[in-house]
Amino acid sequence: MSIDVDVMDMSLVPGCVSAEPNGMSYAELRDTLGAVAERLEVVGFDFVEVNPLLDVGTGVTAYLGAHTVIEFLGRICDQPRWRDHLAARG
Questions:
Q1: Which of 55, 68, 69 is nearest to 13 (CA)?
Q2: What pTM was computed for the model?
Q3: Beta bridge partners of 8
């Protein structure tokens, strides 16, 4: 699965060349990725198109990207198939 930062509303991601006006909010993306993690077996993903040279001094775009990756990994690993697998390993 590939997650492109330009799906987010342009007000959230100044470090993106082609963000969308009226794009997704963070909550919408988080909830969508959570639904994907619950319904599909995610075997890999990336988060692309963050441009640090365009990001503001606070690094908000990079922060949002990192937070999205961590949140999605957590939702993937919280699924029963992963918990059961880890429990079986001991």
A1: 55
A2: 0.85
A3: 24
DSSP, collapsed to helix, strand or coil, labels residue 54 as coil
Look up residue 16 and give its amino acid: C
Single-letter amino acid code for the residue at 65: G
C-alpha 28: how far from its chain's center? 11
Domain ranges of the chain: 2-89
Average pLDDT over residues 2-15: 93
Q: Which residues contact 80 (CB under 8 A, 6 or more apart)?
A: none
Instruction: Please name every residue paired with 24 in a beta bridge, in sequence order, or none if there are none.
Output: 8
Closest by alpha carbon to 37, among 87, 61, 3? Answer: 3
Which residue is associated with the tokens 């922060």? Answer: 63
